[in-house]
Amino acid sequence: MSVTHKESGSKIVFVTVGTTQFDELITQVLHPNTLEHQILEDDGYTHLVLQIGLGVEPPIPISRRIQISCYHFKENISSDMEKASLIISHAGAGSCLEALSVAKPLIVVVNQKLMGNHQLELAEKLHSEGHVYMCYPETLKTTIVDFRTTKLQKFPRNNPVAFSAYLEKLMGFQK
Amino acid sequence: MTCERERNGYFLKKYRLPAARAEPLGIIISRKRNKIPKPMAGDYITALLLLHNQGMIRVQKVSSSTGGHTGEMVRLLSALDFRHFSPRLYLVARTDDMSAKRVQQLESSHVSTADSTVAISRSREVHQSWISTILCNGPGTCVPPCVIALLLRTLFIKRSTIVFVESICRVTTLSLTGKLMLYILADRSIVQWPELHAKYPQTVFLGRLV
């Protein structure tokens, strides 16, 4: 897994909830136990960036060692993902696939409040194949600890060419 | 003549013979109706691409993420040769500006010919007679246009090919829309996980597309 360091030596944790609202995750991340004892005790995270979507802006705790910022939406979060050393994401397919495509260590947090929870299928599959760590907001802390000690499997690239080739053949374009 | 064509049309759909292609209206009355026309250089097959989103969701409805289906559709189209599928009509929900923007981003990032036209429509209805390919990947909102397309096909007005791509989120279960598409509405239904393909052998599996 690649770990990108900015020139200033900063190490960023990026939390994203996509276009949803997931206050439970944000609250857990900002909990003193997570913030000070887990995230900081790791190899020196310097920044915590929260993309909170439709969520309520949380009270930002003041920490001497880690800079915390948050925003609701950005047109494109891929640059934030690329700069991060760890991504903690809700279980939306788009966010997961985007994080996996930039090959960053990824913890996927499932929102149990979702009705019918179709996100769970994908999260469980990715977890069982070792591409991500899956957890719930309550188990986030222990997951961050466990995460350090095990390696993640590289996620294979998607193949949109297979689709376009198929469609072209179906519509009569292929030779 | 028309009865034969109806049987042919039904036969093609039921037994999944290859290449369900669009035919211009003229072929119905010409003798060439059984020949499948090959596109010649400069021929365009038009495409209708459906994007499904619930618009900006309210707090209570966190089950439907707006990013999902549009994001998948954009990734799906990333390798498509837009010169072959032109003009393109995207259907977007009325309140969904985010999807409209992503479509514009996708279109401007593609190197296509200057002649290709793109339209983004907020209506869910399909009336355009030039549509030959319908590509959809979403929830129930994609059903009405497909039903109308099927109706047009049954009435011999326009033969269009409906291709449904199930979401990457579906690993072991097919969505309700997916089942509707697979068994009734779509000519082809594509799934993205081998487990799902094994469960529904009539689907098409091409690997992970998005």
UniProtKB/TrEMBL annotation, chain B:
Coiled coil: none annotated. It comes from the Eukaryota. Keywords: Endoplasmic reticulum, Membrane, Transmembrane, Transmembrane helix. It is found in: Endoplasmic reticulum membrane. One of its GO terms (biological process) is dolichol-linked oligosaccharide biosynthetic process. The keyword Ribonucleoprotein does not apply. InterPro entries: Oligosacch_biosynth_Alg14. It is a single-pass membrane protein. One of its GO terms (cellular component) is UDP-N-acetylglucosamine transferase complex. Belongs to the ALG14 family. PANTHER family: GLYCOSYL TRANSFERASE-RELATED, UDP-N-ACETYLGLUCOSAMINE TRANSFERASE SUBUNIT ALG14 HOMOLOG. This is UDP-N-acetylglucosamine transferase subunit ALG14. It comes from Daphnia pulex (Water flea).
